[in-house]
Amino acid sequence: MFNTKILYMKKLYSLLIVVLLIHFQARSQIVPINIGTTTLETSTLLSTTEIPWELKYGPGDSLWMTTKSGLILRIHPTNGGVTTLLNHTANVWQVSESGMLGMVFHQDFTNNPYIYVAYTYTNAGLNRERLSRFTYSGNALINEFVLIDGGNIVANSIHNGSRLLILPDNTLLMSTGDAANTANAQNSSSLNGKILRVNLDGTIPADNPIPGSLVYTIGHRNPQGLMLHPNGKIYSTEHGPNNNDEFQVIEAGRNYGWPNVQGFCDNDIAGETTFCTANNVKEPLASWLVAPGGTWAPNDMIWYTHPSIPEFQNSFLVTFLKTAKIRRVNIDGTGNSITGETDFFVNQWGRLRDITAAPNGDIYIATNTPPSKIIRLRNLTTVPVYMSDYRISCIQGKAQLNWTTQAEIKNRQFLIYRSTDGINYELISTLPSLAPGGTSDIPHSYSYTDNFAGAEQVLYKIVGEDLDGQRKNFEVLSSPCQYGAGDIRIIPNPATDQTLITLPNATDFFNISVLSTEGKQLFTSVAQRNLLNISVNKWPAGTYIVSIINQRSKEKINKKFVVAR
To answer: What's the rounded Cα separation, in Å, for the pair 122 and 90?
Structure first.
């Protein structure tokens, strides 16, 4: 009876914590900020005494967030409404940098509704870290399944790493810190100071660098950023000691030097070059050495591709704690060299923990300065329509476009355009907004069927128009009715502003590279969609080669196209 009362009080206490701490829907006024030629609308979507760690845009067209105390929250991206999906506070050990930390979604969430989470806990007086999987069901995360534990990852109040990344081969990478014990990083028997690789069922991949070991790379101090770039490379950010924060490319089996190497192999620490040569050390792309000493504390990052904020397009955006800023990092076509770095929003919102982006280009930033906030950034000049499930299909020989808006603000109508050459678009229909007065936070579904037939290639473009007459172009879609599933086309050809590569078999992944006739790689991407847009407005006139490889069948196709001026 006594134990039952204690359990009841613990549950009640946890519920009260949730009620008290998630009383935070205090949205702020809109503040415009100019960057380059773009005016951004910034606002506080959410303010809370909870401390966020992971922030991701994910299933349900929502933000998902872990808090250090042990909560996983789902947040509406426009009104800040919060749903608590998991309250794990009774199981999480939280002191300073420990707590519920990294989170990632299964890549096929519709069929495998799994969330993978890293968190710290205490067992028999020992602080440890584990990787678990939860199942999403009925607005809750249930059925915890532990993938990595056994007390093998030491936790500390600092240096826990914990960023998660699922790769296309259905393995998961997990960064771990050295747990404030530098000897862990170079000890291949320790799981601390590493990046680990595990199968999604918790088994060890047969092709890991060390047979029978979860260890993927060694020599890390506290890696806090981890992401897969469209070029196929894995990038990471890592906290340095009192200098040499790092921006790295992660490669299997490599040593990243800590504690014997800090930053480059340049002997600013005695013996670095000798250690690097003997231990297969991979140097970072950048070592942020702050003079006369100090660090910036880089955290998570995204690769931003959306055209709504041109100043950020095709760049890394990295969050920093100590210097309270976003840094834009640009790389060359090889992905192995940084071509430029620029800071934004310095000291605008305090310490910045994480960053994510919505499919419509809106950016969300989680701050680490109490009270913590979720800051929303969007281009003030774009029509505020939040679209999902945007697709085209062939129904009885007719192209059918379907899309759903998750939210609309002052939206008047959608204009539907058709093109047969990728250059000239004809307005063929308009659909009025279904939102009352053009504004709504609930989903609305739209559909349009075109009876047009006969052209070899038909493209469709949807444009949103708001009550003020401003317009926003959504992605061009290619009709599957006019050609076979194996056809790949490049249009227009010649091109002046952009060229479109049709990829009609949307179930396959394609590796796409564009080369000059001299063999210089100008563009690379991995695509799985109906159409890939490549901007060529700054390319010199001439002939270019597009190399397209089907990842499943390994079939390779080379096509030529011309940029005209």
So the answer is: 11
